[in-house]
Predict the 3D structure of the following.
Amino acid sequence: QLQLVESGGGLVQPGRSLRLSCAASSGFTLDYYDIGWFRQAPGKEREGVSCISTSGGTNYADSVKGRFTLSRDNTRNMVYLQMNSLKPEDTAVYYCAATLKVLYNLCLSKDEYNYWGQGTQVTVSS
């Protein structure tokens, strides 16, 4: 079964950047999956941040548009979430998720994904 592993989280000051990575377990190729990034802050629902299709099309939540960039590197079997101009309200556990196919207008919905990583903590604080 596909397993996902996130990395790259940490503590960062407001205005700084982080890059999160999502890798697949051995023997699985992320090329075949639509990928979503989600986040969950304490006491809040898990929310969609960004998603990328197998063809590279992306979608972003309004709260991160212009600051976050999602990309995939099929040669490395990785997906990257570049987060710039971070704000304290970006603080959350960030999760990578995968599914074989999701409609573009539903790709920020957590219910559309079958496979999830364990998450990586991002804390934005001075």
